[in-house]
Amino acid sequence: MEATFSLRRKGIVEEEPPIADVLEKWPALFLEEQIYAEFFRITQVDLKKTFLTSLDAHASNLIKLYRTRSGTQGKDLKALLDNLDEQTTDVLAQRKATALRGLPLYLRENPGNVLKTCLDTDSEETSVAGVQLGIVTIVEDDVGRAHSMPRTVNIALVIEEKVVVDNISDISTAIVLLFGCIYNLNLDYPKGLKYTFEALQKIFMNLGTECSARVQALKNNLLK
Question: What pLDDT is stored for residue 221 in this prediction?
Answer without folding.
Answer: 93
